[in-house]
Specification:
Largest sheet of chain A: 6 strands, parallel
Radius of gyration of chain A: 18 Å
Oligomer: homooctamer
CATH topology of chain A: Rossmann fold
Strand content of chain A: 5-15%
């Protein structure tokens, strides 16, 4: 049953929609630096696993502002698809074509605003037969109330709400992974207390060994 | 499947129920000016798209106070249906008749209180075979807990919770829309930071051009 | 479909479980006076509509404390069923018998703690073929997180979460009701701002008439 | 003693500093529309009482964005003083000269950010012998913690923290004021629930009179 | 030193300013029923101790609504002083005369809004040589930010912020007081959990004695 | 129907996953001492009921830190299963074997982080035909938003969210239980106000009896 | 200047007032287990440093409940002084005598409620010439608003607000202290994340050394 | 008067105390990444202005963890002073000597925990005749209540609470500064929305110029 489906590095594509500096100013359900860090962490994992990434922006030259540059810097293989004014990215044929071209049937979608730029294409993709995960904390909306409403709507449509940490961890699968260190860095960026944890741990070991000598 | 249905300008009607100044005093899950702005934004879109709007008030001459005047000012084509004491607007035959007269099968419902004036007719309309969207942030309730409970109840009944931003954006469909400017204004009213954004953007362009000269 | 069912004065029974002064000290998701007022408002409506009310307490002589006295004062027809140590009231045969004796198939359940004293018998009653509404704000739990978890559990079981205001309003049906004034008083107790509203309204009319003279 | 000083229409000047659309994006301790409404209400009172208003912007052509236009629209007598890069407006001689030119010794200061654009000139003005009121809710800062810290700093410096409502009410002095209606409108803008109150009151009186007939 | 002064039943007067049903709708820093309960508790203590109470309302026939009736019901000796439009009650000569007539030099002031109706006369009274306590939780204001600002302003002016519980407890002085039971009831109204505590305690003792038999 | 299933002492197993001191530093949706107390309370009940407990840690020697020692101290029969780097404990064959060895078909799962260490094996267990309860407040996640998202995801998968109090109470079934006292202690640890309640109750009885003498 | 005074083990006394299980039920500004832990931590330090501790309870046999037993268990040298009904402990001659008998001029005061049981004797002690520190998080009050008001009142009276951590750390002075380990334990109880920190640290060192072998 | 003192690049020293990765885990009044960014921004300004920076750590080899490395990386001229167990850095003679060696009389102090590592040396420095600013948002404490208490204590001692933004802006003085760009970067790090603002602004200008062509 698809609601129990798992995410694997080789069967998903990432759709990152309207992560634009102007729209970030309207985000009130999550801190903007946290949001940006989470999107970057997804990009980092996509880069090392060669997961297809499609970005799009509604009007990068208008007041919504430019796409956050980190995505394409971190994941140079990401494909940008312009839109011709469509609000729902799934209404842009070139965007749907790009998704089809990936050959993947599981989509990980994040964007700003969650209630619009994530919800609309997520529901459309479900209608088109895809399995869809909406990454709520790599997305942003205008109020916590709006996020609460949107999660309820997504549940009704069969879209699976998920967090950045869960996406990365599901793809990682095992710490025996050859790129475990990169994964640890990505998770540290998502969970800032984890970074301090690792610093303390290393120091404690260093001290123990020094003392031993 | 109806839970994936989309909203289009030509297949929906707006039902705005008991947005009265007295009842506004009992609203605690959203700021009242935000609530009024959101309702006005819906009215504005209804006006330019000629979407049927039906308003009703439980007792406009009693302590619940008069209907907020903005709706009929902004959308003069809106139809007001009085009730004869019924709490659930769907129990008023004239109200159901007015809905039928629109010929639409998708209903966008907002009102105060969410748990009563929105929930009851929404569930009745589902039972009568309609597809129903409840606009939570164009509605108001007496506590966040009450809103949380009501969203859960609506989900169980198959009513789709939605935000004002999502309703307007779903109807807009594309920024190539001939009334894009009006939509941008409506969205600015819903997302106040968006207004400041547009002001900054316009100024930035003006400066760039001046400097160029 | 039962998830769309409506509440009527003549087809429901109220089950008020473990509203005890000791347990009230553990409630953290709602203010205790609000909780008590909401329970009393339910009792008041039950009294005028002759809706069956069954109360029960887990250990009224132990540290959980005595049942709040308002219920039986306001609704003298309420029936108290003692338990013999059972946590889930539905495990007490006398309690189930009392429910059966009412002849009603729709149950309105409230109690303290929501996650235990409401959730357990609600789910049991669903399993026994009843339609069940859980009145979240006439119940109390030890944290907002606990309430959030419990609402999710109830949704999965098909129990309908509802608020006190919605229960009273669904039973009222119309303000042409012969006891409309009592209903208005009950709703004022649930929504304190409504009380001030009515005071202001009466004064405004009095002033207008005086001035007219 | 100056800490007990009162505000009068004829002995104060309003200094409105850096209320720019770009800086509004960094405000997190108050909703931006509320902030803008409060500033506009101050301008409205200044206009009818002919209270001197001095505005200034750090860099109106840079990313901080243009000054919010409402101030000069509502209070056309307001004087704009440009700065030459100075962060603390009191470091701009033309600004201090403009203040001196008003001949007033009590200053009402608001701006964005509170911790910088309000705090610095407030403290400088105290040092220069003025009595200073800082209007915290006609100002904005980057976090509630920042506002808390800034209020503590202002207290230490002898700057009196105040709200927009208090400023307007202190100037009004009596509802027998010839412009009482304008004051009521200004206060309604600051306290949105007050607007609904007045609507309900008027309706109640109208109904009472109609019924009387 | 006056900032260390204590409150005694025979040397204080209570000034309750603008506790009107309309203004209650604008209160956002405290629940309205809590506010009303706290004011009533002060009235109750004033009644048994014969502490002078002066009430006043800005415009009891206008949209601010009538004075809450509980005060004069509970404390029939309270004196009502009308105002002629003055915002600051201390600007009404009849009000100041009424205060003088009490012969007390310590004033306990509460009202709605805290930032206006409490702050202005409190500061004026300090200037006139009185010792002043402002009862913050028997008062109400339009936002927590507004309350925070007002407390800071009052501190600067030498007004002592206090709570209802502290006022009642300071006057009580000892539980050997002949009216200790009335005080316990008043405190229970202010601290609702205390009511449940007493109910449980009584029950526990009753059970212990029954069991003993 | 499994969503109505009940928990019994003899048909469940407890899976406690990655409750490690390092990971606790990343928990932000619940206080860490509360989380630890809740986990310990589960262990206590498991010990007296002989419910199988399986613990596991992702990397007890790495920065995630050692397993909290209380579990194995309180429930010495608990079985620890090491993992070989797998994130999802269900991907570790030895873990699944340990679960199978218990012979139970209902699993009570808690862990840190909820969105990863609880969600992944919960969903896998559902897929493998188990009935699964996720104990949200004996688990921890990096933000309330993350918890909200995870509860929604679990609902979609048919995992039943539950609280520690509800788990213990469902297993207790009746206060006639031979270990009722231990249950009361466990519940006191989960609900700290309950502890004070019992202390007060005992004292009240003692006083009553003394007085009687 | 006394506002800069420091706390030393040999010049202070601890006054712990009305930490009773019944009163704990009314505490809403801090979690009760946190409050109890903080009080216990103070008792622990008093025990090892032989700092005088005076406890008192308003009515330990009444509904306020018994004194929390931990204090006298941890600090057996603590002296209990009964009161004869006085609300302000400083009004009980035996209490003041006990304070004088300690010979200390710096008092560390904590209690429940902060606004009454801490504020009153603190202000009285200042008037009597003592230097007073009020430990806000080893005390409890009925709402955050109440705490905010009380801190403001204490500041005006010259009472120094302080935290449990600060008290313990000021007395510790240096980690070269012979009882540093006990201090570390006390601080771990006050800061639960610190406990996990130490567990992780020890494990990290153990692992490093094992690996080294 | 010193409470009106201003901060200048050439008359202050920065004291950064106990910013250690272990202690960061106990911080609950501010997000840890925000705290780290704020400290780094201070370091950046110190580096370009050659402001003396003194760092210290209580036990960098113990569980408190290593000093955050960013400080010395960004400000290589910073001086590290070890302590010999002293909690209050001012009790370490080498630390006081280092402060004296800077020749500055105004100290900007930040650290973790605010209530201990900032408050103690701040008060000691005031006693030693320095002017002291405590940077609350470049410091961290274990709860918002703790921060509130500490700010009140600092106010009583004459320590000026301040924010990172205010410190940087006071030193900047004018945007005509030769290093204005570095300051803008530092402020962007402190106010993340400012970063998005600048990105949008630059894009808007670029678009305007392109379009012009």
């Amino acid at each position: 049953m698809s609601l129990l489906t798992r995410i694997n590095a080789d069967d998903v594509a990432f759709l990152l929609i309207d992560h634009q500096s102007g729209l970030f100013q309207t985000v009130k359900d999550i801190e903007v630096p946290t949001l940006r860090s989470n999107v970057s962490a997804l990009a980092r994992i996509a880069a090392i696993e060669n997961i297809p990434v499609i970005t799009t922006a509604s009007e990068p030259k208008g007041p919504n502002g430019p796409l956050m540059p980190e995505i394409h810097e971190i994941a140079p293989h990401a494909v940008y698809v312009g839109r011709n004014g469509e609000v729902n990215a799934w209404d842009t044929p070139a965007f749907v074509d790009a998704v089809k071209a990936t050959g993947k049937k599981k989509l990980i979608i994040a964007g700003v605003l969650t209630s619009v730029c994530v919800a609309f294409p997520s529901i459309s993709a479900i209608a088109a037969g895809y399995e869809v995960f909406a990454v709520i904390d790599a997305s942003g909306d205008m109020s916590p109330l709006s996020t609460q409403v949107t999660i309820a709507r997504l549940q009704l449509a069969g879209v699976i709400p998920i967090t950045t940490t869960a996406v990365i961890s599901e793809i990682l699968k095992t710490w025996k992974h050859k790129d475990a260190y990169t994964y640890a860095q990505a998770l540290s960026a998502v969970m800032p207390n984890y970074q301090a944890l690792i610093e303390s741990y290393s120091k404690a070991q260093e001290v123990a060994l020094e003392t031993k000598k």
